[in-house]
Amino acid sequence: MVTHLICDxxxxxxxxxxxxxxxxxEELGRHxxxxxxxxxxxxxxGLPLVTLLEEMAAEFGFSLDQLxxxxxxxxxxxxxxQRVGPVQGxxxxxxxxxxxxxxxxxxxxARVRETLQRAGLWSRFEGRxxxxxxxxxxxxxxxxYLAACASFGVAPGACVVVEDSVAGVTAAAAAGMRVLGFTGxxxxxxxxxxxxxxxxASQIFTEMRALPAxxxxxxxxxxxxxxxx
Length: 229
Hints:
This protein is an alpha/beta fold. Helices cover 50% and strands 11% of the residues. The chain has twelve helices and six strands. It has a six-stranded parallel beta sheet, with helices on both faces.
């Protein structure tokens, strides 16, 4: 039975990924003037920045100086701090879901805290935030999700995850959790719903107001399956 909820942060709780894409398009455009980069970047949201940049460099055939990655990372962080807000409808959705909740993110712990505070969501998750820099392995590895699950003291199958990236869905599915794919944030590109389903999402939704009903239905279905015939 589903008893706990674990959310990704960027693109699920806070609408930050579109800001990241905007900054990265500008930064990488210096190396690739005139190239359309938005779709390739959006498809890689959810990966650690260094992995994302390495994949972009390999695909588009450019190189970055060793100082470029930390500089770009600082700029992304600064822009997000100044401009980020909550995903539309997330506060009301969380109010309507009577489950213990946690955050599992590929971002670092300090950044997650700052952005959730700015979005007015930190008090909902304080003490239940699990990040790749602390756990030690980023998504698509399942470690952050397994750490969140272990903190609750429940089996992975008792957790439902909300994710917006292929890396995140892959991680949660590998952890043995049910996954709902969210495609309503600002960075979404055509075809993301199919990619999330292929990675292991059981359902896709585009508005946070739909989330409470999806979880109620999932809980009801899991309870029905557990009843003796």
